Amino acid sequence: MLLNPVVFHSPRTIKEAVQLYGSLEDVKILAGGTFLLNSLKLLKRKGTKTTANIISLRKINELKGIRMDGNRLVIPAMTIINDLFESPFLTDNFAILHTVCRNISTNPIRNMATVGGNLTCRYTWTEMGAVMIALNAQMHFTGKDGEKAVVSSEEFFKNAAKSDKLFTHVTIERDPLARLAYRRVKKTMHVDVPLLAVCVKVYIKDGKFNNSCVSVNNGTSFAQRDNQLENFLNNSLYTTETVDLALNHLDVNIYDKRSDEYKSHMFRVSIKNALLEIIKSEQSAHA
Amino acid sequence: MSISINSSDTKINIDPVGKSVPRIDGRGIVTGQTKYVFDVSFPNMLVGKMIRSEHPHARILSIDTSKAEKLPGVRAVITAKDTHNIKYGSNEYFFPHTVDQMAIESEKVRYIGDEIGAVAAIDEETALEALKLIDVKYEVLPSVTDVLEAMKPGAPQIHEAMNNIGVILPVNFGNPERAFKESFHVREDKFYASAAAMAALEPHVCIGQWETFTNKITLWSSSQAPFKCRESLAKTMKMDLNDVRVIKLAVGGGFGGKLEMLPMDFAACLLSKKAGGLPVKICYNREEEFSFSRRKHGMHYTIKSGVTKDGVLTAITGEVIADGGAYCSYGPTVMAAAIMRIFMVYKIQHFRISGYRIYTNTPISGAMRGFGGVQSGFAIESHMDLLAKDLGLDPIEFRLRNITTPNMITVNKMHLTTNGLKECIEKASEAAEWKKKRSNPKYFKQGVWKRGVGIGIAADVMGSKMYKSHESAGAIVKIEEDGSVYLFTGAADTGQGSNTALSQIAAQALGVKYERIKCKSGDTEITPFDTGSFASRVTFISGNAALRAGKDAKMQILEVVAEEHKINISELDIVAEKVILTKDNTTLMTFDAALNLCYSFNYGKQIIGRGSYNPKTTPIDFRTGEGNVSGSYGFEAQIAEVEVNVETGEVKILKMWDAHDIGKAINPQSVEAQIEGSLAMGIGYTFYEDLQFRNGRVVNPNFANYRLPRSIGIPEMESIMVETNDPEGPFGAKGMGEASLLPTSAAIANAIEDAIGIRIKELPITAKKIIKAIKEKEISEEKRV
Amino acid sequence: MHKVNLTINNKNFPINLNGNETLMEVLRNQLGLTGTKTACEESECGTCTVQINGKAVLACITMACDLEGDNILTIEGVADEDQLHPVQQAYLDYGAVQCGFCIPGMIMSTKALLEKNPAPSQEEIEYALDGNICRCAGYPKIFDAVKKAGQVMQKGWQKVNETENISREKLSSINQGLTYEEYVKISAVANPEAQK
Lengths: 287, 785, 196
What we know:
Chain A has helices spanning about 15-25, 35-45, 80-85, 95-100, 105-110, 115-120, 130-135, 155-160, 225-235, 240-245, 250-255, 260-285, and strands at about 5-10, 25-30, 55, 65-70, 70-75, 140, 150, 165-175, 180-185, 195-205, 210-215, 225. Chain A is α+β, with helices and mostly antiparallel strands. Chain A folds into 3 domains: about 5-55, 2-Layer Sandwich (Uridine Diphospho-n-acetylenolpyruvylglucosamine Reductase, domain 2); about 60-175, Uridine Diphospho-n-acetylenolpyruvylglucosamine Reductase, domain 3, CATH 3.30.465; about 180-285, Enolase-like, domain 1, CATH 3.30.390.50. In chain A, the strands form 3 sheets. Chain A has a 5-stranded antiparallel β-sheet with strand order 4-5-8-6-7. A 4-stranded antiparallel β-sheet of chain A has the order 9-10-11-12. The relative contact order of chain A is 0.11. By secondary structure, chain B is α+β, with helices and mostly antiparallel strands. The longest helix of chain B is centred in the C-terminal third of the chain and has 28 residues, at about 540-565. The radius of gyration of chain B is 27 Å and the shape is globular. By secondary structure, chain C is α+β, with helices and mostly antiparallel strands. A 5-stranded mixed β-sheet of chain C has the order 2-1-5-3-4, with helices on one face. In chain C, helix 2 packs antiparallel against helix 5. The longest helix of chain C is centred in the last third of the chain and has 16 residues, at about 140-155. In chain C, strand 1 and strand 2 form a beta hairpin. Chain C has 2 domains: about 1-75, Beta-grasp domain (Ubiquitin-like (UB roll)), CATH 3.10.20.30; about 85-195, [2Fe-2S]-binding domain (DNA polymerase, domain 1), CATH 1.10.150.120. Classes of the chains: A alpha+beta, B alpha+beta, C alpha+beta. Chains B and C meet through helix 1 and helix 18 of B and helix 2, helix 3, helix 4 and helix 5 of C.
C-alpha cells in the first residue's frame, strides 16, 4: 500500500463538502491530487502518521465548468488546467491565462491539476498566484456553516494563502484595455533553475504607463506586488528607456532576500522582457 | 506454420540483414503483455528488503535480529553469519585485489546503504516493520566523501588500500618530457565530469527461489549479464555453476547498472533457502535505485598536450582522478577506458597519463554506458578544441591532422583495421554545413540568441578482454520439424534490439526468412555462455556466434541433401529459402522439403547448429598498457549546433549530426534508434543530470531533482551511417551503443564557445554557470579597457 | 469499505476497496493488469499513464475509490482483439520501441493526443509527451511514430471484421497509409500468399 489507511469521503455538492469539512477532524481536501497524493506517499515512506479523512471534490459538479457570467469570467475550483488552457473564453485580458497554463508541470499533471489546487495549496508554489493578482481576480469561498465570502486575490495572498473555508471559484472582470505579460523561468536544463514568476499589467494612456501592477512570485505559495516599481512606472513614458531605468527601481527586498545571484538576475531579465513584450505589442498594434 | 513457396525465381531478396525488420519482441511490448521481472509474481511469494547501514563508515559491532524474526509474517532474516563470507568483484580475473565486496558485509560498512542483511516477509508492510526491529550496534568511524580529500595522507582508510587508491593505472609510452621541450606550443587544461545515475526506468528487481529437493537456485533478475551474475552467485554461495540458474526476462533498460550481481540478488536466493524454498522478490523503489545501486564515476581530468607549429600532436600527459565510491565494481575497466580510448582516435607516440580510482564513503561507481569514455571524451575533445584555437586552426582541420587511419597499430598495440573516422568527420562536416557556420561572425551572432557549432569525435571498442581469460559468445540454432527455428543466445537484450539483430544474422546465415526465428536469450541453463550486454559487444561478438550457429545448421541440412542426391556438399547452398546448386543458382528443392528430408524415416537427423566466437584479441598488460583489446573498433564524429541566450544562459540545441562507422548496419532503424538514444543521454549528462551528495548521502534521489531529458528540448538528430564493412564482423557489422555518448558533452561545450566565447570546463553546463562566466568576462574586459 | 464498480477497458470490475488504494495499485496488484507500469514515487516518470474519460492521466496519483462512473482505458484495452491500434502499429513500424518500459504510458499519451487532434504540430507533440520519460529512445522515432499514427487516424481506421474480403496484410498496409509495395519493403517479407 502506498498510502496509510484513510477514510475517504466523496460528497456530491458544495453543501455536503462544507458540512463534512466542518464536522470532521484531521481533514485534507483532495482536488486534482497532484500534490496531495505524493505528499501522502512520502509521509507513509517516512513512517509518519497521516491524515485520517480525505474529502474528494471530484464528484461535485457545482465546482466544474468555466463559464461567462455577463462580462465576468467564472473559473470554478475544480477546473482542470488543460481545460482552462483550451477554453474559448480566454480573450482580451483573460488570454494571459493561456500562457500561464502552458508551462505548468507536465501534460498528465495538467490533465489532473486544478485551478483551486494551484491557488490554495500552501505547501507548493503557485504558478497562477501572480496572474490572479494582476487580473484583479476575486476569490470566492464557502464557509463551514454555508456562509459565502469574497476576497481579492491580493488580500488572499497577503494573508499567506490561508483560509479556513472551502474555495469554490474565482471571478475575473473582462478588461479589454489591460495589457498583460507573464514570465516564468522555464524548467529546462538543470534543476537549479530558479522558481519564479512575474506578471505585469499596465494601461497605456497619453503615451504613459498607468495603473500598473507588477506581481511577483518568488517560488512560494503566494505572490505580492512590487509597489515601488509600480510607482515608478506610473506616469513614465512607455518606451524602452523606461524599461532600462525601471530595473533601478525594484524593491530589492522582494527579489533578492532569498535569492542567489542567478535568481536575482533572472528576476530582472523577466521583468525587463515582460515590459518589452507589452511595449512591442502595443507598438505593432498601432503600426 | 507450413510455408510453401511456389515461385522458382531465386532472385526474391528476403535476406534480412541490412533491413529494418520489425522487432522480434515488439508486439508484446506495445500491447502491455510483455513481462518484466518487475511485473512477475508467484504464489506464496515473499517480499524482501535489505538491511542497510545508516552510516557512511562504521564498524559493525553486533546485529540483533531476534525481535524481527519473531514478528508475525516474517519468514526469514539473514545476516553475514548465514553466508560463507566470500568476497566477489567484477574485474577479478585481471585485478584480484579489486575483489573487495561481500554480498552481505560482516565487519565494516563503507557507505550509507551498505547491505548488512535482509528480511523476507509475507508483504511489504511487514518487511518494513521488521527492518525497524533490527538492532545494530556500530562503532562510527570518521568518513571521507570528497575524492580529493580521500587521497590525502591521513584520510580515513576505507579498505586496505593506501591513500584509498583502489586502482592505479599508469600508462606510459615514449618520452613526453623531451617531446614537450621540442614542441612549438604546450597547453594544460583541467576538467571535471560529474557523477550521474543510470536511471533506467525499470529499477533493479529480482526473484530468488531455492529448490529444496535439489538444492538449486533459480534467480529471475533484471540483468544485462546473467552469466556474470551466475558466476558471482555460484562463487559466493559456494555452488556449482550448473546448480545456479539466472534468467532474464524483458529488461527495462540497464545502461551499465545491471552488469553485475548486486547484494539483492544474493539475498533473494539465501532468503528463499531460509524460508524453506518460497520465492522471494526484492525490488528497489526509485530512491533506493538512485542511492544504493550504481552510478557513474565523477572524474577530475587533467590533460596537457604539445603540438608542432603545424598542429600535429607531439605528446600528451595528464592525470585522471576518479571517485570510485565505496567498492570497486568495474573500476579497472572504467579507468582503462578513460585513459586508453584516446589511442584509437589520435596518433600519439609520447604519452603518460596516470589514473587513480579512489575509494570514498559514497555509493558505488560502476560501469555506466561509456565506461569512463564519456568523462574522458568531454575532457579530451574540449582540450583539442582549445589547442586548435591557440594555433588559429579550424577544429576539424586540427583533428584531421592527428586522427588514426585504417590498418594501423597504435603505440599501445591496438590493431585498428577498418577505420572510418576520416569519412565520419567529413560527412558530418558536410551535413552540418560546418564551413559556413563555424567561426563566422555573421552567422547568427547578433541579438540575444547566438548560434555556434562544435565537433567531438570518439572511438569505441567491441567488447574488451578485461573480465575473463576468454570473451566468447555462444549460440545454438535449433530447427523444429515444422520449419520454425529457435535461436538460443546468451546475449542479454536489454531493449537495444539484440534479439532482433541476432535473429536477422542467424536467419541470413541459415538462408531462411527472418520470420521463422524465435529468439531465446539470457537464460544460463538453456542458452550458451555470453559475457553480457556492454561495451557495444553484442552485434560483433554474439553476432558472430549466431552467424556460425546458423551456418552450422545449414551445413547439417546440406549434408543430408548431399547424401540423398549424391551431390558434393560444396556444390550446395541455402539462399532465400531454397536449396540451390551454386554453379548455376538453380533450385534443387525448397528449404521445407530439405528439412522434411532430414526428419524423414531414412535419416531422422535433428538439426542443431552451434557456434562459438572468441575475438582474436589480447588482454591489456597492465604493467605496460599494451594490448589489442578488441576485435574491431568503431568510430564516430558528432557535430552540435546550439543557440545560447546571453540574457538567461539557456542553451537550445538546434540540431545534432552523428556520423558513425558501424561496419554494416544489421538493422538500420535499430542503429539509428541507438544513436538517438545515446545522443539524448549525452545531452542529459551535459545539461541536466547531476547526482549530488552531502556527507555521503544522495540528496536528489528522485526525478523531480535529478532531471532527465524529455520530449521538450530534444533537437533534430541526423544519423549518418558509414559502412566500412569490417572483415571480422558478422556480415561486416561492428557494434555500437555507446560511442554516440562519448563526445556529446564536448561537442556541445565546443559549440557554446563558438557561439558566445565562453568555455565551461565543468559538467553539467548550467544556465547559472554560463551567466556567471559571461558576467566575469564582461568585468575582465572592462578592466582591460 | 467501499464497493466500487470500476469500468476498465469496457469491462465492469466490482471491487471492494479500503479507500486508500491508488488506481495503479488496483490495476497491477488486484487485477493483474501489469501493462501499466510505475517507475518513481512522485508522478514524474509517466509510466503509469492511463486514459480516464479520454484524458491522459497518471494512475499512481489517482484514488481508485473515486472512479465509479469513469471510463478507464489501459494499454491492455487499446488493441482490438488481435488488430493493433494505429498508434501501436506505428510505434512498431518506426522503431520507437526499445526496452519498452515507457511504451505503455507513451502510447496512452499519444492516443489521447491524436484522438483530440490527429494532426498535431511538433510543439504540440512535445508538450503532450513531456510527462513521459524515455531513457532509451531519445524521442525522434517516437515523434515519427506519433505523426504517422495521426495520419492513419485522420483517414479513418478500418477494423478487421468490417472488411472480410481483404487479407490481413493488405489491410495492415492500407491502415498504415502505405501502398502494398511500400509495406513489403518496410517489413522485408515477400509473402506470396497475399499476392494472390
